[in-house]
Design a protein that fits this description.
Blueprint: H1 4-10, H2 24-30, H3 33-59, E1 65-69, E2 72-76, H4 80-92, H5 94-111, H6 116-122, H7 125-139, H8 149-166, H9 168-176, H10 181-220, H11 232-267, H12 273-326, H13 336-353, E3 357-364, H14 367-374, H15 376-393, E4 399-404, E5 407-413, H16 417-433, E6 436-438, E7 441-443, E8 447-453, H17 460-476, E9 481-485, E10 492-497
Parallel strand pairs: 8-9
Antiparallel strand pairs: 1-2, 3-5, 3-8, 4-5, 6-7, 9-10
Helix pairs in contact: 3-4, 3-5, 4-5, 4-7, 4-10, 5-6, 5-7, 7-8, 7-11, 8-10, 8-11, 9-10, 10-11, 11-12, 14-15, 15-16
The structure holds guanosine-5'-triphosphate.
Domain GGDEF: 355-487
Organism: Marinobacterium zhoushanense
Pfam families: GGDEF (PF00990)
Protein backbone atom coordinates (compact mmCIF):
# COMPACT_ATOMS: atom_id res chain seq x y z
CA UNK A 1 0.00 0.00 0.00
CA UNK A 2 1.06 3.57 -0.70
CA UNK A 3 2.21 5.73 2.13
CA UNK A 4 -0.65 8.05 3.04
CA UNK A 5 1.60 11.07 3.48
CA UNK A 6 3.37 10.63 0.18
CA UNK A 7 0.20 10.00 -1.80
CA UNK A 8 -1.46 12.96 -0.11
CA UNK A 9 1.46 15.15 -1.07
CA UNK A 10 1.16 13.95 -4.63
CA UNK A 11 -2.49 14.89 -4.35
CA UNK A 12 -3.41 12.06 -6.64
CA UNK A 13 -5.09 9.18 -4.97
CA UNK A 14 -5.13 9.47 -1.25
CA UNK A 15 -5.84 13.07 -0.49
CA UNK A 16 -6.65 14.53 2.83
CA UNK A 17 -10.25 13.52 2.51
CA UNK A 18 -11.13 9.91 1.83
CA UNK A 19 -14.70 9.02 0.96
CA UNK A 20 -15.83 8.22 4.47
CA UNK A 21 -18.97 6.20 4.63
CA UNK A 22 -20.95 5.73 7.79
CA UNK A 23 -22.54 2.33 8.28
CA UNK A 24 -25.90 1.90 9.94
CA UNK A 25 -24.60 -0.98 12.08
CA UNK A 26 -21.71 1.12 13.37
CA UNK A 27 -23.95 4.11 13.97
CA UNK A 28 -26.22 1.92 16.11
CA UNK A 29 -23.28 0.42 17.96
CA UNK A 30 -21.02 3.44 18.50
CA UNK A 31 -23.15 6.52 17.76
CA UNK A 32 -24.07 8.91 20.55
CA UNK A 33 -27.82 9.32 21.22
CA UNK A 34 -27.73 12.75 19.51
CA UNK A 35 -25.94 11.36 16.47
CA UNK A 36 -28.48 8.57 16.17
CA UNK A 37 -31.38 10.98 16.52
CA UNK A 38 -30.05 13.56 14.06
CA UNK A 39 -28.74 11.16 11.41
CA UNK A 40 -31.45 8.51 11.51
CA UNK A 41 -34.19 11.11 12.00
CA UNK A 42 -32.85 13.22 9.16
CA UNK A 43 -32.54 10.21 6.92
CA UNK A 44 -36.07 8.98 7.61
CA UNK A 45 -37.38 12.47 6.90
CA UNK A 46 -35.42 12.49 3.65
CA UNK A 47 -36.92 9.12 2.75
CA UNK A 48 -40.45 10.42 3.32
CA UNK A 49 -39.69 13.64 1.44
CA UNK A 50 -38.23 11.65 -1.48
CA UNK A 51 -41.30 9.43 -1.77
CA UNK A 52 -43.68 12.41 -1.47
CA UNK A 53 -41.81 14.50 -4.02
CA UNK A 54 -41.57 11.48 -6.32
CA UNK A 55 -45.36 11.09 -6.22
CA UNK A 56 -45.87 14.83 -6.67
CA UNK A 57 -43.79 14.71 -9.85
CA UNK A 58 -46.32 12.29 -11.37
CA UNK A 59 -49.45 13.76 -9.79
CA UNK A 60 -48.56 17.28 -10.85
CA UNK A 61 -47.23 16.13 -14.19
CA UNK A 62 -43.78 17.75 -13.89
CA UNK A 63 -42.56 16.31 -17.13
CA UNK A 64 -39.69 18.75 -17.41
CA UNK A 65 -38.85 22.19 -18.72
CA UNK A 66 -38.56 22.39 -22.51
CA UNK A 67 -35.13 23.77 -23.39
CA UNK A 68 -33.45 23.90 -26.81
CA UNK A 69 -30.39 21.66 -26.78
CA UNK A 70 -28.44 20.15 -29.65
CA UNK A 71 -30.96 21.35 -32.24
CA UNK A 72 -34.03 19.87 -30.52
CA UNK A 73 -36.23 20.74 -27.62
CA UNK A 74 -35.30 18.57 -24.66
CA UNK A 75 -37.30 18.24 -21.47
CA UNK A 76 -35.04 18.99 -18.57
CA UNK A 77 -36.34 17.04 -15.62
CA UNK A 78 -36.37 18.40 -12.10
CA UNK A 79 -36.60 15.50 -9.71
CA UNK A 80 -36.28 16.49 -6.01
CA UNK A 81 -35.64 12.92 -4.72
CA UNK A 82 -32.51 12.92 -6.90
CA UNK A 83 -31.22 16.05 -5.15
CA UNK A 84 -31.90 14.79 -1.64
CA UNK A 85 -30.49 11.32 -2.26
CA UNK A 86 -27.40 12.58 -4.09
CA UNK A 87 -26.55 14.70 -1.03
CA UNK A 88 -26.83 11.64 1.24
CA UNK A 89 -24.66 9.59 -1.14
CA UNK A 90 -21.98 12.26 -1.24
CA UNK A 91 -21.93 12.91 2.51
CA UNK A 92 -22.72 9.53 4.06
CA UNK A 93 -22.27 6.80 1.47
CA UNK A 94 -24.04 5.04 -1.36
CA UNK A 95 -26.66 3.09 0.62
CA UNK A 96 -27.89 6.22 2.40
CA UNK A 97 -28.80 7.75 -0.96
CA UNK A 98 -29.62 4.59 -2.92
CA UNK A 99 -32.36 3.28 -0.61
CA UNK A 100 -34.59 6.38 -0.59
CA UNK A 101 -33.88 6.98 -4.29
CA UNK A 102 -34.94 3.43 -5.12
CA UNK A 103 -38.09 3.55 -3.00
CA UNK A 104 -39.14 6.99 -4.28
CA UNK A 105 -38.82 5.92 -7.90
CA UNK A 106 -40.49 2.58 -7.21
CA UNK A 107 -43.58 4.19 -5.65
CA UNK A 108 -43.71 6.73 -8.48
CA UNK A 109 -43.42 4.01 -11.12
CA UNK A 110 -46.17 1.86 -9.61
CA UNK A 111 -48.40 4.89 -9.21
CA UNK A 112 -47.97 5.81 -12.84
CA UNK A 113 -48.98 2.30 -13.89
CA UNK A 114 -45.63 0.78 -14.80
CA UNK A 115 -45.71 -3.07 -14.65
CA UNK A 116 -44.16 -4.37 -11.43
CA UNK A 117 -41.14 -6.11 -12.99
CA UNK A 118 -40.29 -3.00 -15.01
CA UNK A 119 -40.79 -0.80 -11.94
CA UNK A 120 -38.37 -2.97 -9.99
CA UNK A 121 -35.76 -2.48 -12.71
CA UNK A 122 -36.58 1.17 -13.43
CA UNK A 123 -35.99 2.13 -9.79
CA UNK A 124 -32.32 1.12 -10.06
CA UNK A 125 -31.58 4.06 -12.38
CA UNK A 126 -30.65 6.66 -9.75
CA UNK A 127 -28.87 4.18 -7.42
CA UNK A 128 -26.84 3.20 -10.51
CA UNK A 129 -25.82 6.82 -11.09
CA UNK A 130 -24.96 7.24 -7.41
CA UNK A 131 -22.86 4.07 -7.55
CA UNK A 132 -20.79 5.61 -10.36
CA UNK A 133 -20.30 8.74 -8.24
CA UNK A 134 -19.29 6.87 -5.10
CA UNK A 135 -16.92 4.66 -7.11
CA UNK A 136 -15.31 7.87 -8.34
CA UNK A 137 -14.86 9.36 -4.88
CA UNK A 138 -13.65 6.07 -3.47
CA UNK A 139 -10.86 5.94 -6.04
CA UNK A 140 -9.89 9.62 -6.30
CA UNK A 141 -10.07 11.16 -2.89
CA UNK A 142 -10.52 14.78 -3.74
CA UNK A 143 -12.51 16.69 -1.16
CA UNK A 144 -16.21 17.12 -1.86
CA UNK A 145 -16.36 20.64 -0.44
CA UNK A 146 -16.08 22.25 -3.91
CA UNK A 147 -13.60 24.78 -2.57
CA UNK A 148 -10.80 24.13 -5.02
CA UNK A 149 -10.50 23.85 -8.80
CA UNK A 150 -9.58 20.18 -8.43
CA UNK A 151 -12.61 19.49 -6.25
CA UNK A 152 -15.02 21.31 -8.62
CA UNK A 153 -13.54 19.74 -11.76
CA UNK A 154 -13.85 16.23 -10.37
CA UNK A 155 -17.36 16.87 -9.11
CA UNK A 156 -18.46 18.09 -12.55
CA UNK A 157 -16.87 15.09 -14.29
CA UNK A 158 -18.22 12.45 -11.94
CA UNK A 159 -21.74 13.90 -11.72
CA UNK A 160 -21.84 13.99 -15.53
CA UNK A 161 -20.96 10.27 -15.57
CA UNK A 162 -23.48 9.65 -12.76
CA UNK A 163 -26.17 11.48 -14.73
CA UNK A 164 -25.48 9.32 -17.80
CA UNK A 165 -25.91 6.13 -15.74
CA UNK A 166 -29.03 7.52 -14.04
CA UNK A 167 -30.55 8.36 -17.40
CA UNK A 168 -30.78 4.63 -18.14
CA UNK A 169 -34.19 5.07 -16.49
CA UNK A 170 -35.34 7.13 -19.50
CA UNK A 171 -34.90 4.09 -21.74
CA UNK A 172 -37.16 1.97 -19.53
CA UNK A 173 -39.64 4.80 -19.10
CA UNK A 174 -39.96 5.30 -22.86
CA UNK A 175 -40.15 1.56 -23.52
CA UNK A 176 -42.96 0.97 -20.99
CA UNK A 177 -44.81 4.07 -22.20
CA UNK A 178 -44.42 2.95 -25.82
CA UNK A 179 -42.48 6.06 -26.78
CA UNK A 180 -40.44 5.27 -29.91
CA UNK A 181 -36.78 6.12 -30.44
CA UNK A 182 -37.78 9.40 -32.05
CA UNK A 183 -39.50 10.53 -28.89
CA UNK A 184 -36.83 8.96 -26.72
CA UNK A 185 -34.07 11.38 -27.80
CA UNK A 186 -35.48 14.57 -26.18
CA UNK A 187 -36.53 12.64 -23.09
CA UNK A 188 -33.19 10.92 -22.62
CA UNK A 189 -31.22 14.10 -23.34
CA UNK A 190 -33.37 16.02 -20.88
CA UNK A 191 -33.05 13.24 -18.33
CA UNK A 192 -29.27 13.19 -18.16
CA UNK A 193 -28.94 16.93 -18.69
CA UNK A 194 -31.49 17.53 -15.93
CA UNK A 195 -29.66 15.19 -13.56
CA UNK A 196 -26.36 16.82 -14.39
CA UNK A 197 -27.59 20.40 -14.02
CA UNK A 198 -29.37 19.61 -10.75
CA UNK A 199 -26.15 18.03 -9.44
CA UNK A 200 -24.01 21.01 -10.39
CA UNK A 201 -26.36 23.95 -9.81
CA UNK A 202 -28.38 22.77 -6.81
CA UNK A 203 -26.56 19.95 -4.99
CA UNK A 204 -23.18 21.62 -5.67
CA UNK A 205 -23.90 24.82 -3.67
CA UNK A 206 -25.59 22.80 -0.88
CA UNK A 207 -22.52 20.61 -0.74
CA UNK A 208 -20.27 23.68 -0.67
CA UNK A 209 -21.90 24.84 2.57
CA UNK A 210 -22.62 21.53 4.30
CA UNK A 211 -19.86 19.11 3.37
CA UNK A 212 -17.01 20.77 5.34
CA UNK A 213 -19.04 20.32 8.54
CA UNK A 214 -19.92 16.73 7.72
CA UNK A 215 -16.26 16.00 6.87
CA UNK A 216 -15.08 17.58 10.11
CA UNK A 217 -17.49 15.46 12.12
CA UNK A 218 -16.60 12.27 10.19
CA UNK A 219 -12.89 12.79 10.75
CA UNK A 220 -13.38 12.77 14.51
CA UNK A 221 -15.77 9.78 14.49
CA UNK A 222 -13.59 7.11 12.93
CA UNK A 223 -15.43 4.28 14.71
CA UNK A 224 -18.56 5.01 12.66
CA UNK A 225 -16.78 4.54 9.37
CA UNK A 226 -16.98 1.44 7.23
CA UNK A 227 -13.58 -0.25 7.07
CA UNK A 228 -11.86 -0.13 3.73
CA UNK A 229 -11.35 -3.56 2.24
CA UNK A 230 -10.43 -3.02 -1.37
CA UNK A 231 -6.97 -2.08 -2.45
CA UNK A 232 -6.28 1.09 -4.38
CA UNK A 233 -5.63 -0.44 -7.81
CA UNK A 234 -9.02 -2.24 -7.72
CA UNK A 235 -10.73 1.03 -6.91
CA UNK A 236 -8.94 2.81 -9.73
CA UNK A 237 -9.80 0.00 -12.15
CA UNK A 238 -13.47 0.32 -11.27
CA UNK A 239 -13.35 4.07 -11.78
CA UNK A 240 -11.68 3.65 -15.19
CA UNK A 241 -14.41 1.17 -16.20
CA UNK A 242 -17.17 3.49 -15.02
CA UNK A 243 -15.67 6.47 -16.88
CA UNK A 244 -15.15 4.50 -20.10
CA UNK A 245 -18.65 2.98 -19.98
CA UNK A 246 -20.23 6.35 -19.12
CA UNK A 247 -18.51 8.23 -21.93
CA UNK A 248 -19.12 5.49 -24.51
CA UNK A 249 -22.73 4.99 -23.44
CA UNK A 250 -23.34 8.70 -23.76
CA UNK A 251 -21.74 8.84 -27.21
CA UNK A 252 -23.53 5.75 -28.46
CA UNK A 253 -27.01 6.83 -27.35
CA UNK A 254 -26.60 10.39 -28.61
CA UNK A 255 -25.57 9.23 -32.06
CA UNK A 256 -28.01 6.31 -32.27
CA UNK A 257 -31.06 8.35 -31.28
CA UNK A 258 -30.02 11.31 -33.45
CA UNK A 259 -29.41 9.09 -36.50
CA UNK A 260 -32.72 7.23 -35.99
CA UNK A 261 -34.50 10.54 -35.96
CA UNK A 262 -32.85 11.71 -39.17
CA UNK A 263 -33.50 8.40 -40.92
CA UNK A 264 -37.16 8.32 -40.00
CA UNK A 265 -37.60 11.92 -41.15
CA UNK A 266 -36.01 11.03 -44.49
CA UNK A 267 -38.27 8.02 -44.97
CA UNK A 268 -41.04 10.54 -45.60
CA UNK A 269 -39.18 11.86 -48.65
CA UNK A 270 -38.17 8.78 -50.69
CA UNK A 271 -35.74 9.32 -53.49
CA UNK A 272 -34.44 12.53 -52.05
CA UNK A 273 -30.77 13.23 -52.81
CA UNK A 274 -30.50 13.91 -49.09
CA UNK A 275 -30.76 10.15 -48.49
CA UNK A 276 -27.34 9.47 -49.98
CA UNK A 277 -25.77 12.34 -48.15
CA UNK A 278 -27.33 11.19 -44.90
CA UNK A 279 -26.08 7.62 -45.47
CA UNK A 280 -22.58 8.94 -45.89
CA UNK A 281 -22.95 11.19 -42.87
CA UNK A 282 -24.33 8.49 -40.56
CA UNK A 283 -21.68 5.96 -41.64
CA UNK A 284 -19.01 8.58 -41.06
CA UNK A 285 -20.44 9.44 -37.66
CA UNK A 286 -20.49 5.77 -36.71
CA UNK A 287 -16.92 5.23 -37.87
CA UNK A 288 -15.97 8.32 -35.89
CA UNK A 289 -17.76 6.91 -32.85
CA UNK A 290 -15.96 3.54 -33.01
CA UNK A 291 -12.61 5.24 -33.50
CA UNK A 292 -13.28 7.46 -30.48
CA UNK A 293 -14.51 4.40 -28.54
CA UNK A 294 -11.22 2.65 -29.30
CA UNK A 295 -9.25 5.73 -28.29
CA UNK A 296 -11.21 6.12 -25.03
CA UNK A 297 -10.70 2.42 -24.27
CA UNK A 298 -6.96 2.61 -25.00
CA UNK A 299 -6.60 5.74 -22.88
CA UNK A 300 -8.41 3.93 -20.06
CA UNK A 301 -6.18 0.86 -20.29
CA UNK A 302 -3.09 2.99 -20.74
CA UNK A 303 -3.87 5.18 -17.74
CA UNK A 304 -4.61 2.17 -15.59
CA UNK A 305 -1.29 0.59 -16.63
CA UNK A 306 0.55 3.83 -15.81
CA UNK A 307 -1.16 3.96 -12.47
CA UNK A 308 -0.37 0.36 -11.47
CA UNK A 309 3.24 0.78 -12.63
CA UNK A 310 3.55 4.03 -10.64
CA UNK A 311 1.94 2.40 -7.63
CA UNK A 312 4.32 -0.57 -7.68
CA UNK A 313 7.36 1.71 -8.08
CA UNK A 314 6.19 3.90 -5.17
CA UNK A 315 5.38 0.81 -3.10
CA UNK A 316 8.87 -0.59 -3.68
CA UNK A 317 10.43 2.78 -2.83
CA UNK A 318 8.34 3.12 0.30
CA UNK A 319 9.21 -0.42 1.38
CA UNK A 320 12.92 0.34 0.86
CA UNK A 321 12.62 3.67 2.70
CA UNK A 322 10.88 2.08 5.62
CA UNK A 323 13.46 -0.74 5.69
CA UNK A 324 16.26 1.83 5.72
CA UNK A 325 14.55 3.81 8.48
CA UNK A 326 14.33 0.66 10.59
CA UNK A 327 17.73 -0.89 9.88
CA UNK A 328 21.14 -0.17 11.28
CA UNK A 329 23.47 0.71 8.39
CA UNK A 330 26.53 -1.08 9.80
CA UNK A 331 25.09 -4.42 10.92
CA UNK A 332 21.82 -4.64 8.96
CA UNK A 333 20.11 -5.46 12.25
CA UNK A 334 16.92 -3.64 13.30
CA UNK A 335 17.84 -0.27 14.82
CA UNK A 336 16.65 1.25 18.07
CA UNK A 337 13.46 2.67 16.53
CA UNK A 338 12.44 -0.71 15.07
CA UNK A 339 13.34 -2.50 18.27
CA UNK A 340 11.25 -0.11 20.33
CA UNK A 341 8.19 -1.06 18.25
CA UNK A 342 8.94 -4.78 18.69
CA UNK A 343 9.32 -4.30 22.43
CA UNK A 344 6.03 -2.44 22.72
CA UNK A 345 4.24 -5.28 20.93
CA UNK A 346 5.87 -7.92 23.11
CA UNK A 347 5.09 -5.93 26.21
CA UNK A 348 1.39 -5.68 25.32
CA UNK A 349 1.36 -9.45 24.62
CA UNK A 350 2.75 -9.91 28.10
CA UNK A 351 0.12 -7.62 29.58
CA UNK A 352 -2.75 -9.34 27.74
CA UNK A 353 -1.68 -13.00 27.77
CA UNK A 354 1.08 -12.99 30.42
CA UNK A 355 3.41 -14.20 27.67
CA UNK A 356 6.93 -14.32 29.15
CA UNK A 357 9.96 -12.84 27.46
CA UNK A 358 13.63 -12.24 28.20
CA UNK A 359 15.44 -9.06 27.33
CA UNK A 360 19.20 -9.23 26.85
CA UNK A 361 21.30 -6.07 26.93
CA UNK A 362 24.77 -6.70 25.48
CA UNK A 363 27.83 -4.48 25.42
CA UNK A 364 31.22 -5.20 23.89
CA UNK A 365 33.92 -5.04 26.54
CA UNK A 366 36.67 -2.44 26.42
CA UNK A 367 35.63 -1.53 22.93
CA UNK A 368 37.35 1.82 23.14
CA UNK A 369 40.62 -0.06 23.34
CA UNK A 370 39.80 -1.95 20.16
CA UNK A 371 39.23 1.35 18.36
CA UNK A 372 42.30 2.97 19.85
CA UNK A 373 44.58 0.05 19.12
CA UNK A 374 43.37 -1.14 15.69
CA UNK A 375 41.54 1.88 14.34
CA UNK A 376 37.88 2.75 13.78
CA UNK A 377 37.55 0.57 10.67
CA UNK A 378 38.67 -2.43 12.68
CA UNK A 379 36.13 -1.50 15.37
CA UNK A 380 33.41 -1.42 12.70
CA UNK A 381 34.46 -4.82 11.49
CA UNK A 382 34.26 -6.22 15.02
CA UNK A 383 30.75 -4.82 15.39
CA UNK A 384 29.74 -6.39 12.06
CA UNK A 385 31.23 -9.78 13.00
CA UNK A 386 29.52 -9.65 16.37
CA UNK A 387 26.16 -8.98 14.64
CA UNK A 388 26.76 -12.02 12.41
CA UNK A 389 27.34 -14.23 15.43
CA UNK A 390 24.17 -12.92 17.06
CA UNK A 391 22.19 -13.50 13.86
CA UNK A 392 23.46 -17.06 13.66
CA UNK A 393 22.47 -17.79 17.26
CA UNK A 394 18.94 -16.39 17.45
CA UNK A 395 15.73 -18.23 16.55
CA UNK A 396 13.24 -16.95 13.97
CA UNK A 397 10.93 -15.46 16.60
CA UNK A 398 13.77 -13.65 18.43
CA UNK A 399 14.71 -10.08 17.58
CA UNK A 400 18.25 -8.75 17.86
CA UNK A 401 18.92 -5.05 17.41
CA UNK A 402 21.72 -2.56 17.58
CA UNK A 403 20.57 -0.36 20.44
CA UNK A 404 23.37 2.16 19.91
CA UNK A 405 27.17 2.27 19.56
CA UNK A 406 28.54 -1.07 20.78
CA UNK A 407 25.36 -1.88 22.67
CA UNK A 408 22.85 -4.46 21.48
CA UNK A 409 19.42 -5.54 22.67
CA UNK A 410 17.95 -8.98 22.07
CA UNK A 411 14.38 -10.04 22.76
CA UNK A 412 13.67 -13.72 23.32
CA UNK A 413 9.92 -14.25 23.49
CA UNK A 414 8.40 -17.29 25.28
CA UNK A 415 11.65 -18.30 26.94
CA UNK A 416 12.25 -19.37 30.55
CA UNK A 417 15.26 -18.50 32.72
CA UNK A 418 17.15 -21.68 31.81
CA UNK A 419 16.63 -21.07 28.10
CA UNK A 420 17.66 -17.41 28.27
CA UNK A 421 20.71 -18.23 30.33
CA UNK A 422 21.80 -21.03 27.98
CA UNK A 423 21.37 -18.75 24.98
CA UNK A 424 23.35 -15.89 26.54
CA UNK A 425 26.12 -18.20 27.62
CA UNK A 426 26.35 -19.74 24.15
CA UNK A 427 26.60 -16.28 22.65
CA UNK A 428 29.18 -15.11 25.15
CA UNK A 429 31.48 -18.06 24.57
CA UNK A 430 31.01 -17.97 20.80
CA UNK A 431 32.20 -14.33 20.80
CA UNK A 432 35.15 -15.22 22.95
CA UNK A 433 36.13 -18.06 20.62
CA UNK A 434 35.83 -16.14 17.35
CA UNK A 435 38.56 -13.56 16.99
CA UNK A 436 38.15 -11.05 14.17
CA UNK A 437 40.87 -10.90 11.55
CA UNK A 438 41.78 -7.42 10.46
CA UNK A 439 44.73 -6.67 8.16
CA UNK A 440 46.47 -9.84 9.25
CA UNK A 441 45.86 -9.25 12.96
CA UNK A 442 43.65 -11.31 15.25
CA UNK A 443 41.37 -9.11 17.37
CA UNK A 444 40.01 -10.88 20.41
CA UNK A 445 37.06 -9.31 22.15
CA UNK A 446 34.38 -10.26 24.65
CA UNK A 447 30.86 -9.28 25.52
CA UNK A 448 28.99 -8.67 28.77
CA UNK A 449 25.31 -9.57 28.93
CA UNK A 450 22.53 -8.49 31.26
CA UNK A 451 19.21 -10.39 31.23
CA UNK A 452 15.85 -9.26 32.61
CA UNK A 453 12.41 -10.86 32.56
CA UNK A 454 9.13 -9.01 32.34
CA UNK A 455 7.72 -8.66 35.83
CA UNK A 456 4.18 -8.02 36.96
CA UNK A 457 3.44 -4.35 37.54
CA UNK A 458 6.62 -3.22 35.79
CA UNK A 459 6.59 -0.91 32.77
CA UNK A 460 8.46 -1.38 29.52
CA UNK A 461 11.02 1.19 30.67
CA UNK A 462 11.48 -0.75 33.93
CA UNK A 463 12.12 -3.88 31.93
CA UNK A 464 14.78 -2.21 29.78
CA UNK A 465 16.46 -0.56 32.75
CA UNK A 466 16.54 -3.89 34.61
CA UNK A 467 18.40 -5.44 31.69
CA UNK A 468 20.69 -2.40 31.75
CA UNK A 469 21.26 -2.80 35.49
CA UNK A 470 22.11 -6.46 35.03
CA UNK A 471 24.57 -5.48 32.30
CA UNK A 472 26.08 -2.84 34.59
CA UNK A 473 26.55 -5.52 37.26
CA UNK A 474 28.22 -7.79 34.71
CA UNK A 475 30.62 -4.98 33.82
CA UNK A 476 31.25 -4.21 37.49
CA UNK A 477 31.96 -7.82 38.23
CA UNK A 478 34.73 -8.01 35.67
CA UNK A 479 33.04 -8.20 32.18
CA UNK A 480 32.75 -11.20 29.82
CA UNK A 481 29.90 -12.62 31.83
CA UNK A 482 26.16 -13.04 31.96
CA UNK A 483 24.05 -11.60 34.77
CA UNK A 484 20.39 -12.42 35.03
CA UNK A 485 17.73 -10.49 36.86
CA UNK A 486 14.22 -11.84 37.34
CA UNK A 487 11.26 -9.54 36.69
CA UNK A 488 10.60 -7.07 39.52
CA UNK A 489 13.30 -8.73 41.60
CA UNK A 490 16.24 -6.58 42.54
CA UNK A 491 18.51 -9.56 43.25
CA UNK A 492 20.78 -10.42 40.43
CA UNK A 493 22.42 -13.73 39.87
CA UNK A 494 25.68 -14.19 38.05
CA UNK A 495 25.20 -17.16 35.82
CA UNK A 496 28.50 -17.21 34.07
CA UNK A 497 31.85 -15.66 34.47
CA UNK A 498 34.85 -16.10 32.33
CA UNK A 499 37.26 -13.21 32.33
CA UNK A 500 39.32 -13.03 29.18
CA UNK A 501 41.80 -10.58 27.66
CA UNK A 502 40.39 -8.32 24.96
CA UNK A 503 43.21 -8.84 22.54
N1 LIG B 1 34.32 1.56 15.38
C1 LIG B 1 33.22 1.94 15.98
N2 LIG B 1 33.26 2.33 17.27
C2 LIG B 1 32.11 2.71 17.87
C3 LIG B 1 30.91 2.71 17.20
N3 LIG B 1 29.94 3.11 18.06
C4 LIG B 1 30.54 3.37 19.25
N4 LIG B 1 31.89 3.12 19.14
C5 LIG B 1 32.90 3.28 20.14
O1 LIG B 1 32.69 2.37 21.21
C6 LIG B 1 33.43 2.90 22.32
C7 LIG B 1 32.63 2.67 23.56
O2 LIG B 1 33.46 2.98 24.63
P1 LIG B 1 33.00 3.01 26.12
O3 LIG B 1 31.57 3.45 26.20
O4 LIG B 1 34.00 3.83 26.86
O5 LIG B 1 33.02 1.55 26.60
P2 LIG B 1 34.08 0.39 26.43
O6 LIG B 1 35.42 0.90 26.02
O7 LIG B 1 33.48 -0.63 25.54
O8 LIG B 1 34.17 -0.13 27.88
P3 LIG B 1 33.13 -1.00 28.68
O9 LIG B 1 31.79 -0.86 27.98
O10 LIG B 1 33.09 -0.41 30.04
O11 LIG B 1 33.61 -2.39 28.64
C8 LIG B 1 33.69 4.36 22.03
O12 LIG B 1 35.07 4.53 21.78
C9 LIG B 1 32.90 4.64 20.78
O13 LIG B 1 33.54 5.57 19.95
C10 LIG B 1 30.89 2.30 15.82
O14 LIG B 1 29.88 2.28 15.14
N5 LIG B 1 32.07 1.93 15.27
Amino acid sequence: MLSKKLAARLGLVKGEEPYLTVTLARLRQYGTPTEKKVILGGWLLSLLASISFGLLVVVEGWSGLPVPFGGIEVFITIYPPFLICLWWTLCFGWLWGAIPAYLATFVLALYSGMPLQWALLFSFANPLGFAAISIGYRAIRVPRDLRSVQSIAFYVLITFIGAIFSSAGALIWCYTNQIDTIGLLPIWQGWWLGGFLQSVLIVGPILFFTQPFVALWQRTRSELRAPEVEDLSRRILRLVLVLVLGVLGYGYLTIKLGVDRVESALEAVPGSPLLDATDVLTSTVWIFFWVVALIVLSIGVFNYRIFTRWESVVDALMAELSRLAQTDYLTDLPNRRAMSEVLEKQFSRFERHAEPGALLMLDLDHFKEVNDRYGHAAGDQVIRRFAEIVRAEIRLEDTASRWGGEEFLILLPRVDQTGAQAFAERLRSSVQEHAVEHKGQQIHYTVSIGIAFIGKGATLDDWISQADDALYTAKQQGRNQVVMRAGGDSDSAVVSEDAAPTS
